[in-house]
Amino acid sequence: MTSRPTRRLAAMAALAVLASGDAAQAQIETNSNAPIDITANEAEVVNSKCLAIWKGAAEALQGDSRLRANTITVYQAPKSKDAAGQQDCGATEKVVAEGNVYYVTPTQKAHGERAVYTAADDEIVMTGSVVVAQGKDVARGDKLIIKVSTKQFTMVSNATGAGAPNRVRGVFYPKKTDQPASASAATPEAQ
Prior knowledge:
Layout: H1 3-11, H2 17-20, E1 36-39, E2 42-46, E3 51-62, E4 65-81, E5 87-104, E6 108-118, E7 123-134, E8 137-147, E9 152-156, E10 169-171
Antiparallel strand pairs: 1-3, 2-3, 3-4, 4-5, 5-6, 6-7, 7-8, 8-9, 8-10
């Protein structure tokens, strides 16, 4: 349920390069050359800390993918200082989206209260009443952990034990086929 969109979510971490002006490396959609459009009520770039903070209804769009949160904070690796003594920032280390986080693609939607992409771990962790939907299929839990390179995801819950409320839950609808029923499935009158 997370193949292509999880790659996209991980790629959103590349938004950090926008703070350093290296937009050629930034992507939300891994297979897109479309520009990234970021809006917020306020944006703060702290070059000395290699940090960019987008606050207030922050939204990043690229192609058909959208990341929304109250705040999106991007951390980059500090590099050397330039000749003028200004901090030079490198690759994205971490992206944190906080407060009413939504990641939406044409086929999938994910919602939680916080999402953190960590480049060193090659991992996205979404927490806070997580809901992932694809079509009618829905999965819920307290935490969604996505390994970006393997596209493997794990949904976990703080609730344990049979019958406990708020355990990990998924509702999946079978795909309908247009093929006629086989003879063994026919009614007794037809046999």
